[in-house]
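Justification of computing resources. Each target in the renewal requires a structure prediction run like the one illustrated here; the chain below, 128 residues long, is used simply to show the kind of job we budget for.
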Amino acid sequence: MRFVLVILICLLGASFNANAQKAKKSKDKQQPVDNAFEPFAPEEVKAPIRKSSKKSKKSYSTKYNKTLEEKREEFAKRMEANAKKERKMQRQMEKPQYSDPSYFGHKNKPKKRKPSKRKFCKECGIVH
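Resulting structure tokens:
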């Protein structure tokens, strides 16, 4: 009789243990439900993952707090760039399009037509 009672208690304990594990798993899977007792249940909020930007943004201190040497270097770079730009413009101005007055501001020299076939030019406002 005792043997049957021990087996019965072991079976009941095993079944209660299995039910407890199933209930635990089902609680984990369920979403919290709004009810009168907990109308504002806390939800899990995942923070968005920030992607690292390729451009590094300069802070205020690095942008404006510069030493005198850095300022001189920047000035020298600007002056070199301006001189280079000026030389390039001078080379362009030597082209006949800009230096020869017979071009009248045209990219290509206007054709000399017969007096009967001359046209009014929209570009320079001259009949040629």
